[in-house]
Amino acid sequence: MSLELTVRLPSRGFEADFSVADGETVAVLGPNGAGKSTLLGLISGLLRPAWGRAQLDGNVLFSAGQRQPDRWVPAHARGVGLLAQEPLLFPHLSVKANVAYGPRSRGASRAAADQTARHWLAELDATELAGRRPAELSGGQGQRVAVARALAAEPALLLLDEPMSALDITAAPALRRLLRRVLAGRKAVIVTHEPLDALLLAHRVVVMDGGRIVEQGPVREVFARPRSSFAAGMTGLNLVTGTATESGLTDADGVHWSGDAEAGLRPGDLAAAAFRPASVALFTDLPAGSPRNAVAATVTELVPHGGLVTVRAGWLAAEVTPAAVSDLSLAPGDRVHFVVKAAEVSIYPR
């Protein structure tokens, strides 16, 4: 069983075909305003589309503008759990009562709901919090309780909207480990800006931009060979898009890039080329030697990190040593050649 959604929302410039297979966790990534929250709103029932259809495990959630009569299932009757960035726990209830709320609202007895609450609090390592009120919880504790409350309602699909964004650097890893365990075998969608969330929690990644899905596939495949600038930026890769040629790729500016082309890529195909900033060398004068790609660009930013310096020039990035920056006397505004060997460039279909 699965989620299948095809929808248009012209008022927000949104259009998508989206699916989640049984037992699959899908990570949705994209810049601010890409349409991620709109997608969650449509699935959960917080937004009503002008046209489209969605069904979950064979049950129609909505149907609008189709050949059959329109149908709309309200949010509370969809079997979809939504975990927001903030825990949003009921402040007047204890932790155990918060978690028991879902089963009770579905008709479970008080004893059965309490048993379910204890089970999920144990699963989320939060048993000792059962008697506390939400105001007495830390951010990490509150989010664990919110996950337990969502799961106690036994949703057919769990939606997580940046669940780690409000947590400090020490609480996020612990919640990530717990989510990895409790999401196993469940249908879930997690919206995130953090590549690590996708790598550790998701089977598949969907990249959105401008209200459209621009890229999707297995997580490691997308991160290894990104086809969108956002995915490339998240993984730290330089990305060039253009048209395949006999010997590489030509970008929109007419610059030719040589590299290791994937088998089956034909001249004229839409293609992408990716390479690591660490494989880029910087020169003030264009060097001679083995086959290389070279682009003259103006330095826009120098970012020190971990004993290295990332030198940026617009979309281009090179990772070099502080000594190299000193030797070249680099500063924003300087013109330099970004040079990368053809063997370091992967070219593949876009």
From TrEMBL:
PROSITE patterns per the UniProt record, alphabetical: ABC_TRANSPORTER_2, MOP
A Pfam family recorded for this sequence: TOBE
Lineage: superkingdom: Bacteria
Keywords (A to Z) from UniProt: ATP-binding, Cell membrane, Membrane, Molybdenum, Nucleotide-binding, Translocase, Transport
Coiled coil: none
Domain (ABC transporter) ranges: 1-235
Tagged with keyword Hydrolase: no
Record keyword Transport present: yes
A single MF term (Gene Ontology): ATP binding
Family matches, as PANTHER family: ABC TRANSPORTER I FAMILY MEMBER 10, SULFATE_THIOSULFATE IMPORT ATP-BINDING PROTEIN CYSA
Full protein name: ATP-binding cassette domain-containing protein
